[in-house]
Amino acid sequence: MTHCHTYIQALRNQGYRITPQREMIIETLAHGDVHMSAEEIYQQVLQRSKAVNLATVYRTLDLLVDKGYATRFMDSDGKLMYATEKHGTHLHLTCRICGNNYQTDANLLNPLIRQIEEMTGFKADFEHIALSGICKNCLDQNINTLKKEKEV
Amino acid sequence: MTHCHTYIQALRNQGYRITPQREMIIETLAHGDVHMSAEEIYQQVLQRSKAVNLATVYRTLDLLVDKGYATRFMDSDGKLMYATEKHGTHLHLTCRICGNNYQTDANLLNPLIRQIEEMTGFKADFEHIALSGICKNCLDQNINTLKKEKEV
DNA sequence: TCCGCTATTGCAATTATTTGCAATAATATA
DNA sequence: TATATTATTGCAAATAATTGCAATAGCGGA
């Protein structure tokens, strides 16, 4: 059974109706890029069928997020993006000076997630986490500027 | 020197102009609740002076985020919130079944942040991290439902 | 103190996302 | 197969956040 059908079946098992729109949206998200915006998904679904509306895309994505099958997050430009667990846990590092994104080994998250479960019993979903800060490049090049920034 | 004046001085040092609007917005965010929405900040500033506009609030908050003095994040309802480092690193756990928020010891993040710095040289800002998942309560009560969810 | 430069603001328009409601359609049951 | 129930959709309106531009004002220099 393919990736997207897992979600579709799971939703059906929970009493949700499976419409052609929902199928196409889930498929597009599950088989598309690492992360996609609602508009991107909408445009791709439109190429297959006119029988879809942007509001429906948002609603379906919301449902997937509510159910834990997808994650909604803001990218470095503050834009809303969605991702499924297909690409696993993400740990992005965004430099607020140069704007570059660095991807780091998401396995670093595993101890944290495990510790939280031990301490609280909370079972975390896969996650897409973005940490903001300053990359090594900018730290090296802007040592004087940063010093001035912190002066009070 | 008080908390909000640190940011004001730092911005001034960087050549930004300090307007009465910016002062009030920064003060409200720095001395207000743990996290606030732009609208909440706007309403509070309005009580002190009519000389402010919601667009200005958003712009000032954006500037603070760009400079690393504040964090923008989505709360459990997908609503945009802002926070300063006053309340330190936050680690929220949001249950997607009951909707409850649990706050957990943010010190758990320290090893992760340290590890990232060692591996990549990336110096992370204070953060506000929200992990989605299922809390212990719901896990206990909904064991059958969850089983059904995962059936494929 | 005055003036010039230009960052910042208010306002209105634009864009992105959400919501209400009537029409449509998925699906269970007879 | 037909029907009933009601979830879901499309559409338009509403809300939340962003952007363009002329007016305003912060602040450095003379």
Question: What key attributes describe this structure?
Answer:
homodimer, 152 residues, alpha+beta, Arc Repressor Mutant, subunit A, Dna Ligase, domain 1, 2 domains, three-stranded mixed β-sheet, DNA-binding
Topology:
The structure is a homodimer of 152-residue chains.
Chain A: H1 3-13, H2 20-31, H3 38-48, H4 54-66, E1 70-74, E2 80-84, E3 90-95, E4 101-103, H5 109-120, E5 123-124, E6 128-134, H6 136-141, H7 143-150
Parallel strand pairs in A: 3-6
Antiparallel strand pairs in A: 1-2, 3-4
The first copy, chain A, binds a DNA duplex (30 and 30 nucleotides) through residues 15-19, 21-22, 38-39, 51-56, 58-59, 62, 78-80.
Global mean pLDDT of chain A = 85
Total strand count of chain A, please? 6
| Overall number of domains of chain A | 2
Number of helices of chain A: 7
Strand order of the largest sheet of chain A: 4-3-6
CATH second-level architecture of the largest domain in chain A: Orthogonal Bundle
Distance between the termini of chain A: 60 Å
CATH superfamily of the largest domain in chain A: Winged helix-like DNA-binding domain superfamily/Winged helix DNA-binding domain
Poorly predicted sequence stretches spanning 5 or more consecutive residues of chain A: none
Based on Cα principal axes, name the global outline of chain A. flat
Q: What is the CATH C-level name of the largest domain in chain A?
A: Mainly Alpha
Element-by-element helix/strand order of chain A: HHHHEEEEHEEHH
Strand content of chain A: 15-25%
